[in-house]
Specification:
Blueprint: H1 12-30, H2 34-39, H3 50-58, H4 66-87, H5 89-110, H6 120-130, H7 142-161, H8 168-186
């Protein structure tokens, strides 16, 4: 007798992140962006304001619109479950928090006139981290080299050549964090 296929909640951290981003994007859209700007965008505000510290993390849930959300959610859902299975929910949650905070702090210190919202830094951390899945001690995977050149290199070029509303810095920081963590998690201890 064949078992009926069932839908499983296979990746709680990634699914939780995507569902939270969906809800925030929905409420942001319904409020004309006011909720997103107030709670889910990080920008240079007073360090005396407790919300400054909250927004250092919550900005990854906010997205500027549905296209922005769908782009990030697609990558998160494509790469996240594989990474959560390999590294575990706790580690992946820590990677998300480290990426969010690092990107927010760098933006706060070096780009005070730039506001950030969205999970793009986390997406880039996941992209680079995924290139380490076949890592063996003493080897640098060609996939990592190509991902670094293509994705991070593209963001450097775009950041220099094109002035748009995309934070290439967040992508670069996410990629660097994915590189550092990917390497450190995959180095085998002798």
């Amino acid at each position: 007798m064949k078992k009926k296929p069932i839908i499983t909640f296979n990746s709680p951290i990634v699914l939780g992140l995507v569902f939270a981003c969906f809800a925030v994007t929905l409420f942001g859209s319904m409020s004309g962006g006011r909720i997103t700007r107030a709670l889910f965008t990080t920008y240079h505000s007073s360090l005396k304001n407790p919300m400054t510290y909250v927004r250092f993390f919550t900005y990854v849930l906010g997205h500027s619109g549905w296209d922005h959300f769908v782009g990030n959610a697609s990558y998160l859902l494509l790469l996240g479950p594989m990474l959560e299975e390999k590294y575990g929910a706790k580690t992946l949650g820590e990677i998300i928090l480290i990426t969010a905070l690092s990107t927010a702090l760098i933006n706060y210190i070096f780009f005070p006139s730039v506001a950030l919202c969205g999970a793009s830094g986390i997406v880039f951390a996941f992209i680079v981290l995924a290139s380490f899945t076949g890592f063996k001690n003493g080897e640098i995977p060609l996939t990592f080299v190509l991902v670094a050149v293509i994705y991070i290199g593209q963001q450097v070029i775009l950041g220099i050549a094109i002035k748009d509303n995309v934070s290439n810095m967040a992508h670069i920081v996410g990629g660097v964090i994915g590189s550092i963590i990917g390497y450190s998690l995959n180095v085998q201890k002798k």
